[in-house]
Amino acid sequence: LSRFICLSVKICLSVCQDLSVRLSVCLSVWEELLQWERPQVIGKNYNVNLNDQSQKAATRLVRCGELSRAAQVLTSSGLAPATAETATRLAAKHPVRSTDVNIQPLPDVNQIDLSKNDFLCCIRNSPRGSAAGPSGWRFEHFRALIDNPITADSLHFVCSLIAQGSLPECVCQLLSASRLIALPKSNQDVRPIAIGESLRRLTAKCICRQKKHDFAKFFSPIQHGVATEGGSELLVHHIQLLLESHPDWVVVKTDVKNAFNTINRSHLLDLIKTTFPDISSHIIQMYSKVNPLVFLQ
Prior knowledge:
three-stranded mixed beta sheet
């Protein structure tokens, strides 16, 4: 047995030494190897974005194990510069309502009781490295809190208050705020992206998980984006079959300019009251007021 152990140790040491030599060789030519392995895609220019902001975002995603998303960050066009000109363009994309929407939830309607199991599943399955809202809180913070039963119960209690629309007005204003970033477009314009508070996004995710079957029943079959497994694939295959069956047909794709920021929310809130009354208090509290938008220059 002692001879066997000594022989095994010698073999392991030999393997470690060989591995050390190989790693030293690789590290000595790392920059050269990196140049060789830069992505080459036929018919597409792959410009690697190496500004400080992109490098930091990519590094954070790599540490979270999100390698594909990190690669997308480095090969994207990045963000528009945080200047006064960008702020002016963003403001034009977000017309301010003159008054708040005056809609009240239906009286004597029990609001949703946030499931503890769904709540914990949403936190465990939340995306790693996701962008933070104005407060800087991320889903990773919540994942750390649920390891302790006391903090897990406290966080569930807070999310339940948000889901039931029971927040004080001052707190609601903070949680409904969003951080604005701008993506450059090819026509010298910008595309606004609003990143909401993670606590509010977590609550909304729990509600959607809990109401998934109700949403599917209401929206089916006119849409493929809500509570529909493989919705985009189904839509593509349906269109392909229709075009194969009717070669003289054409497909027209339409879009509404700046739709989400210009829609009249009162119609949405009225519909929520009658179709999903158990979540109406949450939706009305979060969307009937003018939501604060934060853009850091």
